[in-house]
Amino acid sequence: xxxxxxxxERFPFLQQQDWGRMQTLRVSKLMESFSSDEQTAVAALLxxxxxxxxxxxxxxxxxxxxxxxxxxxxxEQARSDDQYERTKALEAAALLPPxxxxxxxxxxxxxxxxxxxxxxxxxxxxxxxxxxxxxxxxRLFDEFEQHVDQxxxxxxxxxxxxxxxx
Length: 166
Description:
Helices cover 71% and strands 0% of the residues. By secondary structure, it is mainly alpha-helical.
């Protein structure tokens, strides 16, 4: 029990509820594979509102298997003042595809709303102008969607180191 308390004091995210003794010891073992600075970064990454212990252990295992460069990128992103960037870091550590850019989602909504406005518009001259704006926005949305797809593919590319042939 004393060992579990000492580990939880070193890594405050372990002080959240539901952490069992065996899970805490497993975290300690996984954390040994990181430098002191990386341990601090991992602890900060996982010290967020409720991440279940099983998911935290999975993230730790993922980070252990990633290249140092990829981990460094994730840790830098996790220190951002921007909540979206911090979320992207956690998603990358969990090997989840990144969430779409919030602007992309809003642009999608705007395109749908503009199409609805065009349907109910009674003034033909404004309806034509709105149609031109809608076409431009839809082209922008399509371009943005391609970017989002490329970003998703880049993040889904293998991030786990593969052993070199012997």
